[in-house]
Amino acid sequence: MTNTIPPVDAATEIENRKADHLRVCLEEDVQFRDVTSGFEYYRFTHCCLPELDRSDINIQTTFLGKNLGAPLLISSMTGGTELARLVNTRLATVAQHYRLAMGIGSQRIALEMPHLASTFAVRHLAPDILLFANLGAVQLNYGCGLVECLQLVDMLAADALILHLNPLQECVQSHGDTNFRGLLPKIAELCEKLPVPVVVKEVGNGISAAMAQKLIDVGVTAIDVAGAGGTSWAKVESERAKDNKQRRLGQTFADWGLPTAECITEIRAVAPTIPLIASGGLRNGLDVAKAIALGADLAGLARPFLEAAVNSETAVDELVEVLIAELETVLFCTDNVTLQELKNSGVLQRHVTVPAAAS
C-alpha cells in the first residue's frame, strides 16, 4: 500500500465514515437490545468484616511487560478527524497520569491519508503507557502486510499491534471488506516477524474458545474478547446505511454475538495463561472487578471513555477516579488486597436469577 492521498471523493468518504462512527455512537441508540455482557449473572460474596485497611489495597498490575496503575484499558475507538484528535489527546493525557493502557482506532486511514496520522499520535503526551496500534485484520487481504504494520507501530511508537476482527460489521457496512479467506496464515506470519506483540480482538461480537485456541496456535500473544453486550456495530452501521438492505441487515443482527462474561470463562478454560483482555459492555468498576475475578487480566471500556472525552479532560479524569474507587471497594468488601487475590478467592458466584431492574 502506497502512502499517497487518495482522490478527494475517496478521502471524503473515509473521513465521513470516521466522523459518522463518533456521531452515531454518541447520539443514537446503538447498544445491544436483549443480549447483555453476562456480568449481571454473577455476584460477589460480601465480607462484612474485612481483615484489612482500605489503604492497603493495591490494584497495580503488569501486562505485556508494562507496569500499570490499574487493570484498565481505554479501548480502541477513534482517529482520523479533528474531533478524534481532541478525544485521543484527552484520553492519552489521563492515561499517562494514572498509567493506564490505551488503544486507538483503526489506523488504516493514516496509511491511505498520511496527513491524518497526527490525529492518532499520542506518545508525546503519554510516554510511559502501554499503547496499542490498531488495524483491521481483513486489511491483510487488501494490500497491507508486514511493512504497513511496521509503519503503524512506528507511527505511534506503540508497544503492541491490535488486529481487530469485524466480519459482521463488514457485512453490514456499505461496501465493506468481506474477504476473510486465509487470514490465519497471514496473522501467523505477522506474529513471527513483527518486533512487538500481536493482540487479536473482536469489535463487540466475541471470540469463542475454539477460535481463541486457533489464534494462540499461530502465535498471537494476547486476546481481547470484545464480547456482546455493549455497543452493537451492526446497529452503528445500520444507522449509517445508504440503502434499505444494509439498514435491515444491521437491525436483524443487532443482538448477534457471544456475551463477554461467557467468552472470558470459556477461553480461560482452554487457555489458562494467555494474557486476556475483557471488553464489551463494561460500564463501571464493578464490571471490571467481575471481569478480573472471572480470569481477565485487563478490562477495556470504550463508550464511557468516549462520552467523557467529548466532554472534557476533567470528565475523563473523574471517570477514572470513579472506576478505581469502585474496583477498590469490591476488593475491600471481599477481603482482598490485590487483583491476584481476587482472582484466586472464589468470591464471585454465578446466580441463575438476575435482580429485577429498579422501577
What is the strand and helix layout of this fold?
Blueprint: H1 8-27, E1 42-44, E2 61-63, E3 66-68, E4 72-74, H2 82-98, E5 101-103, H3 108-112, E6 131-136, H4 146-156, E7 160-165, H5 167-172, H6 183-193, E8 198-202, H7 209-217, E9 222-224, H8 233-240, H9 244-252, H10 260-270, E10 276-279, H11 285-294, E11 298-301, H12 303-311, H13 313-332, H14 339-345, E12 348-350
Parallel strand pairs: 4-5, 4-11, 5-6, 6-7, 7-8, 8-9, 9-10, 10-11
Antiparallel strand pairs: 1-12, 2-3
Q: Can you describe what's shown?
A:
With 359 residues, the protein is of the alpha/beta class. The protein has helices spanning 8-27, 82-98, 108-112, 146-156, 167-172, 183-193, 209-217, 233-240, 244-252, 260-270, 285-294, 303-311, 313-332, 339-345, and strands spanning 42-44, 61-63, 66-68, 72-74, 101-103, 131-136, 160-165, 198-202, 222-224, 276-279, 298-301, 348-350. The strands form three sheets. Strands 4-5-6-7-8-9-10-11 form an eight-stranded parallel beta barrel, surrounded by six helices. Strands 1-12 form a two-stranded antiparallel ribbon. It has a two-stranded antiparallel ribbon with strand order 2-3. Helix 2 (82-98) links the parallel strand 4 (72-74) and strand 5. The chain starts with 7 loop residues before the first helix and ends in a 9-residue tail after the last strand. 46% of the residues are buried.
